[in-house]
Design a protein that fits this description.
single chain; 92 residues; alpha+beta; three-stranded antiparallel beta sheet; 37% helix; globular
């Protein structure tokens, strides 16, 4: 029986899921499916993102609550807060 690849943020929250038979059997296949650009994959690996192959029961237990927004994980934010600034008006 095919499993599910799950995409896990550093906080432990699952942010994505895909069927193994669609993506492939290797963890690299899963990471490429979720994150196509090499530079982005390297950054995510350094930040602690990971991908795991799980069966249906584990998917229901771990992934489904996160994907439905019903988990208790903290939201993941690797970016710094952005401050709004007023730009100078340009003459029209």
């Amino acid at each position: 029986m095919a499993g599910f690849w799950i995409r896990i943020a550093p906080t432990g929250c699952v942010y994505g899921s895909a069927l193994e038979e669609y993506v492939g059997p290797l963890i690299e296949d899963a990471h490429k499916e979720f994150t196509p650009k090499v530079a982005d994959r390297r950054r995510e690996a350094a930040e602690g993102w990971r991908h795991e192959l799980v069966g249906r029961d584990e998917w229901k237990r771990r992934a489904e609550p996160c994907l439905r927004g019903q988990c208790s994980h903290s939201p993941y934010s690797a970016t710094r807060s952005v401050e709004d600034r007023q730009l100078p008006e340009t003459a029209s």
